[in-house]
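quick one before i forget lol
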Amino acid sequence: MPSMMGLTPRATIQLQLGGENIIPLGKFSGKQECWPRFIQTFKAMVDKQPYEPILKLAILEQHIIGQAKDCIKGLPFDEKSYTLVLKTLEDRFGDEDDRAAFHLGAIEDLPRVKEKETYSLRKFYDNLQYSNPRSSRT
């Protein structure tokens, strides 16, 4: 079981698969479009692991910045706060209606396709795929 001793303010949690592939957790700043990927990765790499709640909280706090950090600034840092902090972040950034509104706005802001310009049509399609949270882009 990891201890707090190995954590530094600049620690980055990484998952090693098969000895070579490393997946960094990264940092979440509060951008709506980044929340689903961040929280899914965090849950797989940290939340579902057998770490103590205080260690999970420390790791989570090291990987959030900006609006996300401000969102939990007033919450206590103790053993019982991990679930409260996680729920606070999920309530603030994981709201389906907010994400839907964000993606709808992104689609509405896409540049218009000019008649008889295949490049313009392709660019619109690519941007639409990027804006669609359910697309199967890799």
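fyi Residues 1-11 have pLDDT under 50 and may be disordered.
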